[in-house]
């Protein structure tokens, strides 16, 4: 195998191109990165049962696998046969002692267990693979080499049923399935030729915010909890204790009529200072008029 | 789409000029100092690296991680910031 460290810049670039990687200028700062990339590619192709972890061509790093539903019940089956497919992380460790000859035991299982293999390569493992591909990749490769032709059929079925990029499509292909890896990636690139490749494989657009969904204005959402000033609160309290207006009027009229009846029922009119004054005024007028007549006469 | 920070918005709003590398989204004091030690003292130098890597996300993230020890979120923020700046001004 070629050691990337010993290649010239041009050779490195050419090698990367072989793997379909259009490298940019290989300068001092970029050289290391491209060497690492080439290393990953070389190890990836050497073990044909690798995941495609390259960022440029990667499809379903973090996407969901539909077979995950059957994962729990399949784990029981797996434990029965001592097949270490319990958790994704343990897979890397436990498949190490597994020999290639165990492929026979796998034949017993139908597609559900195959799919559990798919699902067991969970997101966390993908993240691990992405950032430390060296150690784990080889282990996973040996584990996934156990899969048989049944999984190939399952994969083809899944390719048709799954619309988006999924983990299962890029999950461990077989050793003799290298030819099928090409159609898997081509279908995706055909479907989405112009799509930007994101590291997570997830495409999301911002949802248009719905106005009024948050319950604005506030007073319509919380009608009983109006923000009121203290004055308004006081006024409301006072209004609760007020006697209604019509009741006040009725009472007033009643009292008036009562007093009038009392006044009428009296034998002699009340002596008020007004009447006394009026009487005095009348007397004065009489006196004046008598004087006047005296003077004239 | 995740929301962008104020730092991101400030950076992509105008040409970067002579802004320090710490003006980049995702790059704080610690990371900024590390980048400066490696010679990337201005934002445009990091931009240069970004462009030399042909704006490739994976390579740039890896470079940033190797050079400054940025975590995944910081890498993403910086990449997004530079990418958007390039879309507007380059």
UniProtKB/TrEMBL annotation, chain A:
InterPro entries registered for this protein in UniProt: LEM/LEM-like_dom_sf, LEM_dom, LEM_domain
Assigned keywords, A-Z: Membrane, Transmembrane, Transmembrane helix
Annotated signal sequence range: none
Transmembrane among keywords: yes
Source organism of this protein record: Danionella cerebrum
Residues of the LEM domain: 1-45
Ranges of Acidic residues composition bias in the record: 64-78
Stretches the record annotates as Disordered: 49-111
Record-annotated membrane-spanning stretches: 243-263
UniProt xrefs under Gene3D superfamilies: 1.10.720.40
Superkingdom classification of source: Eukaryota
PANTHER family named among the record's database cross-references: LAMINA-ASSOCIATED POLYPEPTIDE 2, ISOFORMS BETA_GAMMA (PTHR12019:SF22), LAMINA-ASSOCIATED POLYPEPTIDE THYMOPOIETIN (PTHR12019)
Protein name: LEM domain-containing protein
TrEMBL record, chain B:
Coiled-coil region list: none
InterPro entries xrefs: BAF (IPR051387), BAF_prot (IPR004122), BAF_sf (IPR036617)
Superkingdom of this protein's organism: Eukaryota
Entry's Gene Ontology BP terms: chromosome organization
One GO location term (cellular component): nuclear envelope
Pfam family, one: SAM_BAF
Cross-referenced SMART domains: BAF (SM01023)
GO molecular function, one term: DNA binding
Protein location: Chromosome; Cytoplasm; Nucleus envelope
Nucleus found in the keyword field: yes
Keywords: Chromosome, Cytoplasm, DNA-binding, Nucleus
Family classification: Belongs to the BAF family.
Name this protein carries in UniProt: Barrier-to-autointegration factor
Organism from which the protein derives: Danionella cerebrum
């Amino acid at each position: 195998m070629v050691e990337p460290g010993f290649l010239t810049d041009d050779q490195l670039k050419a090698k990367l191109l072989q793997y379909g990687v259009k490298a940019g200028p290989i300068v001092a700062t970029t050289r290391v990165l491209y060497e690492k990339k080439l290393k990953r590619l070389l190890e990836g192709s050497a073990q044909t049962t690798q995941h495609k972890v390259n960022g440029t061509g990667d499809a379903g790093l973090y996407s969901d696998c539909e077979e995950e539903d059957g994962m729990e019940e399949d784990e029981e089956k797996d434990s029965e046969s001592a097949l270490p497919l319990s958790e994704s992380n343990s897979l890397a460790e436990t498949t190490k002692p597994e020999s290639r000859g165990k492929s026979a035991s796998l034949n017993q299982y139908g597609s559900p267990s195959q799919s559990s293999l798919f699902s067991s390569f969970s997101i966390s493992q993908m993240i691990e693979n992405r950032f430390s591909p060296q150690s784990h990749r080889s282990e996973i490769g040996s584990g996934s080499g156990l899969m048989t032709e049944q999984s190939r059929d399952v994969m083809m079925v899944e390719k048709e049923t799954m619309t988006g990029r999924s983990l299962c499509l890029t999950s461990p292909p077989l050793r003799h399935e290298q030819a099928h890896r090409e159609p898997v990636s081509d279908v995706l690139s055909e479907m989405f030729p112009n799509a930007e490749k994101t590291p997570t494989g997830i495409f999301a657009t911002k949802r248009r915010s719905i106005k009024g969904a948050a319950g604005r204005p506030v007073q319509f959402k919380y009608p009983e909890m109006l923000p009121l000033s203290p004055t308004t609160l006081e006024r409301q309290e006072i209004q609760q204790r007020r006697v209604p207006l019509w009741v006040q009027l009725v009472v007033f009229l009643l009292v008036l009529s009562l007093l009038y009846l009392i006044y009428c029922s009296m034998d002699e009119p009340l002596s008020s200072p007004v009447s006394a004054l009026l009487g005095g005024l009348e007397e004065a007028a009489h006196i004046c008029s008598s004087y006047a007549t005296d003077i004239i006469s | 789409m995740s929301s962008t920070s104020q730092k991101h918005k400030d950076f992509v709003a105008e040409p970067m000029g002579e802004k320090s590398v710490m003006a980049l989204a995702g790059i704080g004091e610690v990371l900024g100092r590390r980048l400066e030690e490696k010679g990337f003292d201005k934002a445009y130098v990091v931009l240069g690296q970004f462009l030399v890597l042909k704006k490739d996300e994976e390579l740039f993230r890896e470079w940033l991680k190797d050079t400054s020890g940025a975590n995944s979120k910081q890498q993403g923020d910086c990449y997004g910031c530079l990418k958007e700046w390039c879309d507007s001004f380059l």
